[in-house]
Amino acid sequence: MSRLVCAIFIDGDRILLVRRASHRKWSPDKWDLVGGHAEKGEELDVALVRECQEEVGLTPLALSQIGTLYEAADKKHGSPFHIYSVRLWTGGRAQLLGDEHSELGWFSAEQVETLELAMSGYREMLLKSLVPDERPMLSSLG
Predict the structure, then answer these.
(1) What would the pLDDT profile of 55-100 be if each residue is shown by its tens digit?
(2) In the chain, what are the domains?
(3) How far apart are alpha carbons 5 and 25 in whole angstroms?
């Protein structure tokens, strides 16, 4: 079983997305959330922090799980995508690190409506994340 973690970085009324590089096997050139696979035995929040640092140089300070998605082809729900909203982080401005992505950008709800996203379920999660969250935030690595 593969477990994936994804961060929706929220800055006011904008969301950070990264475009998958054209050489990627899964959803090349489509807009994606920051994140990736949790390693064996790794807690999800720890994996999320690690992936964010590796991909865009940001360290989430507080996060809130807002849902779980599965690819349409994953009929047995064996590879969950755990989606977290992140409203507080350190690291300054997001920057592309590595070669997994070709660009990044901050998008409004109106722009999110028009983007070609890596997973169809992302759009609803992205738009939902722009509504103020009433749930308590989980502190990341203390």
Answers:
(1) 999 999 999 999 999 887 767 777 899 999 999 999 999 999 999 9
(2) 4-133 (3.90.79.10)
(3) 18
